[in-house]
Amino acid sequence: MAKKDFCVKEIHENEMQTTAKTNAKEDLTQAIADLETSKTTLADEISQLKADISEAQVEMKRASEIRVKENQVFQQTITDAVATQKILAKALAKLGSFYKSAAASSFLQLKAKASHKKSAGASAVVAMIENIIDESKDEQKQSIEDENEASAAYSAFVADTKASLEALGKSLVNKSEELAGVDTAKAKAAGDLKHTETDLLKLAQVSATLHSECDFVVKFFDIRQSKRGQEIEVLQQAQAIIAGAKL
């Protein structure tokens, strides 16, 4: 009786532990698969973040190079415009001085007529030079406006790119930390799975031992008990018959 109770108890406990460990193994196996998926996803996201950061840095560098070239063109345009205006202003001054002097020295009628023709010719030249100066000033003004707009656009682009790079950098740090956490969790789960598999192996060995020792006892216990009961009943009947015979 005690042997049977021991066997039933130990086999039941072994089966319960085996079920629990089997479920744990399945959970750990699924957890490892999920962590591996998360690891792949995070690795792809980190790779994309690095690519985005690199692209943003390249774009900012390219924009800086373009801005430098644009400013160089602007500076040269202003320099040329100012130089042109100075040269033409001097030419105007000389023309004005020359024709004023020529007009003042004319005292004969013929020379007066010649002076009038020269004065008329001078007016056309002066008008042409003044027109060129005005166009140069307009070009200078437009260049300054274009430069201011380009500079403002570049400043806004740089500010936006820096903000984007900062956000991308923070995301990269967060994703990298998350990936490290996944690696740690996966390593722990793998270790737990190994221990669980070892426990299952031990439980299987214990189960084999228990069944080899207990299967016969458990299987034939009821049969033996029944026969034992029959034997006791026969003995009791025999005792009753003997007792009756004595009477």
Comma- or semicolon-separated keywords:
single chain; Helix Hairpins; mainly alpha; rod-shaped; 247 residues
Describe the structure.
This protein has about 250 residues and is an all-alpha fold. The chain has a single domain (about 1-245), classed as Helix Hairpins. The protein is built from two helices and no strands. It has helices at about 1-105, 110-245. Helix 1 runs antiparallel to helix 2. The radius of gyration is 54 Å and the shape is rod-shaped. The model is unreliable at about 105-115 (pLDDT under 50).
Using only C-alpha atoms, the radius of gyration works out to 54 Å
Strand count, sense and barrel status of the largest sheet are: none
Fraction in beta strands: under 5%
Secondary-structure element series: HH
Topology:
Blueprint: H1 2-104, H2 109-246
Short description:
The protein has two helices and no strands.
